[in-house]
Design goal:
With 368 residues, the protein is α/β, with parallel strands linked by helices. 38% of the residues lie in helices and 14% in strands. The chain contains 15 helices and 13 strands.
Length: 368
């Protein structure tokens, strides 16, 4: 499961509450989304401006709601270690995400010298995809990013690290003389390939530190992604992801139309989530063996309090857990009967569920 704490933060007590509930459902990986355009959440002892400039956006303007108060802070290293230890006691690995080269406005607001234009970047106050991205042609870029990852390695001991790679516009790269020079040096003519050239440098660096990188499937728009990276499928043409798995790459399944928990129940009702079939057409046997598992993310542009977070996750995380651990033999009526005692157990632990009348409401034609 993934929780986005960049857009809106949740305190350590709430995260522990969620983690404990997820452990009871045998979730064994917590993907912690810590950086994005709207906020930086990892305390740095090397780059102080990440803790002040990058961590606090001046106001919030998500959807129809506008809050003019400054928002945000970092999780201290002590807090992050506390979460890592709490997860370890429940057999859960923590996968941190530092999203690069896009979704990096918060980082660039403090360190504009690693942009193509070298100009100050505003930390973003609303949802969206932004042209402000990291410049792959600056030596300073790799100095800053690798030193930050060195700090990550002091907190997060596990094998997998998520480095993003999604939703990266190429506008500034296309007009950057440094980028053009670097592309010419390496014979790169396509900006999607240039994107992967950058990602591969980070994948290599973290591999040397004993880490395996996870990237969103957007990276498959380019060629020559380092096969040591695991690809997380979330949207778009699945063919490239299936080909990646069939050719030896590892794949994680997070199809947004089934597993993104920030979507309202009338868009993604629980019966729809429950019916996701992990037996994907187009996978050969070796490709099937390269599926690492499933992940259900929750993005928090429109989720800012604990009750809302829990209602959007529960009960749909029960459906994901069943798919993840029990395969594709589906009996939704039987599932609903079996989760009744689980619902009571989780509610007794303080978990808030979405009201039942909304679980299966949909404008869509759901599979039977």
């Amino acid at each position: 499961f993934m929780i986005d704490c960049a857009r809106h933060m949740f305190d350590i007590a709430e995260l522990k509450k969620i983690i404990n509930a997820m452990s009871l459902l045998k979730y064994n990986k917590f993907h912690w989304h810590l950086t994005d355009d709207q906020g930086w959440r990892f305390e740095s002892e090397v780059y102080d401006k990440l803790n002040s400039v990058s961590a606090v956006r001046p106001f919030s303007n998500f959807g129809k709601k506008r809050d003019m108060s400054p928002y945000g802070r970092v999780y201290t290293k002590a807090e992050m270690k506390e979460i890592v230890d709490y997860c370890a006691e429940r057999y859960i690995d923590v996968i941190p995400e530092f999203d690069i080269p896009g979704h990096s406005s918060a980082l660039l607001s403090a360190y504009p010298e690693i942009t193509c234009i070298g100009m100050p970047v505003d930390i973003k106050t609303r949802q969206g995809i932004y042209k402000d991205v990291i410049c792959p042609a600056k030596d300073k870029t790799y100095e800053i990013i690798t030193r930050i990852f060195d700090e990550f390695c002091g907190i997060f001991p596990y094998n997998y690290y998520h480095i993003g790679g999604d939703e990266t516009p190429h506008n500034h790269w296309q007009t950057c003389p440094d980028c053009k020079k670097l592309m010419q040096k390496h014979g790169i003519t396509d900006y999607a390939d240039y994107h992967n050239f950058f990602m591969n440098r980070i994948i290599e660096y973290l591999f040397e530190k004993g880490k395996t990188c996870i990237v969103w499937n957007d990276v498959l728009k380019g060629k020559d992604l380092d096969k040591r990276a695991a690809v997380q499928y979330w949207t778009g043409n699945m063919k490239a992801s299936l080909t990646y798995a069939n050719n030896g790459g590892k794949l994680i399944l997070s199809p947004f139309s089934y597993y993104y928990l920030d979507y309202e129940y009338d868009i993604t009702p629980m019966n729809h989530t429950y019916h996701f079939n992990t037996e994907l057409k187009g996978l050969i046997q070796s490709g099937k063996n390269n599926i690492l598992g499933v992940e259900t993310p929750i993005w928090t542009e429109y989720i800012e309090d604990n009750n809302r977070l829990e209602e959007m996750m529960f009960p749909r995380v029960l459906a994901v857990a069943e798919t993840g651990w029990s395969g594709n033999s589906k009996d939704y009526k039987d599932f609903l009967e079996r989760i009744e005692p689980v619902e009571k157990m989780l509610k007794s632990n303080g978990i808030r569920f979405m009201e039942k009348r909304r679980w299966n409401y949909s404008r869509l034609a759901m599979p039977k």
